[in-house]
């Protein structure tokens, strides 16, 4: 039997996720390890190699049938060279030849891809956007990432930095973003942005159940859960929370309308914890997007949640490996 399986790795600051994926995009095994980035670069590389072999063993696939490894990684990178220029959450990861290091440790041909691009490719090929000629994705987390998939292929741009959709500027004199620019949608509508705007309003004296001592006291909530807590307070009727959520939807819609007017996509997929809000997010968002872009584009473009969940990065990394290695 020929080589028909790929290992996909989704590399994050806290966890490394991995799985064996078949030619149809089905996950045959899935596992994760803590990244342990504080232990140094070589330690993390060894853990990636360990996970590659672990998921292969779990899937009971012989080594000879693994055609390659794909790694979805954060940070600016060079796909052709397999090089990570910098991974902000992984100390010492500067100008790292990641593909070569993993090939050396595992013996498998290895390629790299931007993590948001990998998740976008998975949704386009095997998830919510399957069959769509042009699909965009926004990843709504602590930041906002994105991907552009046209004809089942990621559009990388001239320097492999296309689709930094969270850094579309929606306000020319607005908030300072972590990227150093001003007015990026990420600074307003990411989970971090939502929480920051809420905390600023509370510090300014806004009356809310989210205030210290209130029944929904935001200060008592763990950081990763704060954005969801604000959406929940809005559902309960808290005036400040409702305004924060409404503003968040306008900020997202402003960026998304620009994307629709630029790309005329068939679909925009939203991925990440914020999408758990369901109709609270999607119904007003679709309406606001339609109000802000050309009507023909709005009628064409479906705005939907992702289907693949936490497997998206692994599936996309494996599909990237198949596509890039077949072209090599």
- Give me the count of strands: 13
At the first level of CATH, the class of the largest domain is Alpha Beta
The arrangement of helices and strands along the chain is EEEHEEEEHEHEEEHHHHEHHEH
Kindly, what is the distance between the CA atoms of the first and last residues, rounded to a whole number of angstroms? 22 Å
CATH topology of the largest domain: Nucleotidyltransferase, domain 5
The secondary-structure class comes to: alpha/beta
Query: What's the rounded overall pLDDT mean?
Result: 95
Compute the gyration radius: what is it? 20 Å
Known CATH architecture of the largest domain: 2-Layer Sandwich
Number of domains: 2
Note the total helix count. 10
Q: Which stretches are low in confidence, meaning pLDDT under 50 for 5 or more residues running?
A: none
What portion of residues is helical?
25-40%
Tell me, what's the shape?
A: globular
What is the CATH homology-level superfamily of the largest domain?
ATPase, nucleotide binding domain
The profile of the biggest β sheet is:
5 strands, mixed
Note down, in words, how this protein is organized.
This protein is of the alpha/beta class. The protein has two domains: 5-121 and 310-327, Nucleotidyltransferase, domain 5, CATH 3.30.420; 130-306, ATPase, nucleotide binding domain (Nucleotidyltransferase, domain 5, 2-Layer Sandwich). The protein is 40% helix and 21% strand. The chain has ten helices and 13 strands. The chain has helices spanning 41-59, 98-106, 115-126, 185-189, 191-203, 226-236, 239-263, 279-292, 295-300, 312-327, and strands at 5-11, 15-21, 27-34, 66-73, 77-78, 83-86, 94-96, 110-114, 134-140, 144-150, 153-154, 267-271, 302-305. The model has no long low-confidence stretch (mean pLDDT 95).
């Amino acid at each position: 039997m020929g080589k028909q399986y790929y290992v996909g790795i989704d590399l994050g600051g806290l966890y490394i996720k991995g799985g064996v994926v078949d030619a149809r995009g089905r996950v045959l095994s899935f596992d994760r390890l803590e990244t342990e980035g504080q232990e140094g670069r070589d330690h993390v590389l060894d853990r990636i190699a360990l996970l590659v072999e672990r998921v292969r063993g779990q899937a009971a696939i012989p080594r000879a049938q693994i055609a390659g490894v794909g790694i979805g990684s954060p940070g600016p990178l060079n796909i052709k060279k397999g090089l990570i220029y910098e991974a902000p959450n992984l100390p010492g990861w500067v100008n790292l030849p990641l593909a070569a290091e993993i090939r050396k440790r595992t013996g498998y041909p290895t390629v790299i891809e931007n993590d948001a691009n990998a998740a976008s490719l998975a949704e386009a090929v095997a998830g919510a956007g399957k069959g769509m000629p042009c699909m965009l994705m926004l990843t709504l987390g602590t930041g906002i990432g994105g991907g552009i998939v046209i004809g089942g292929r990621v559009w990388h741009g001239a320097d492999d930095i296309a689709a930094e959709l969270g850094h579309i500027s929606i306000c020319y004199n607005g908030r300072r973003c972590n990227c150093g620019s001003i007015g990026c949608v990420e600074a307003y509508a990411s989970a971090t942005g939502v929480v920051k705007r809420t905390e600023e309003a509370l510090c300014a004296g806004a009356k809310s159940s989210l205030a210290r001592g209130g029944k929904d006291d935001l200060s008592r909530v763990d950081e990763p859960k704060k954005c969801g807590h604000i959406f929940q307070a809005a559902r309960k009727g808290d005036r400040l929370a409702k305004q924060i959520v409404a503003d968040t939807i306008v900020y997202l819609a402003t960026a998304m309308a620009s994307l629709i007017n630029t790309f005329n996509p068939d679909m925009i997929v939203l991925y990440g914890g914020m999408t758990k809000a369901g109709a609270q997010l999607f119904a007003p968002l679709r309406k606001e997007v339609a109000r802000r872009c050309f009507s023909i584009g709005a009628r064409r473009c479906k705005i939907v949640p992702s289907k693949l969940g936490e497997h998206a990065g692994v599936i996309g990394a494996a599909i990237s490996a198949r596509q890039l290695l077949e072209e090599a």
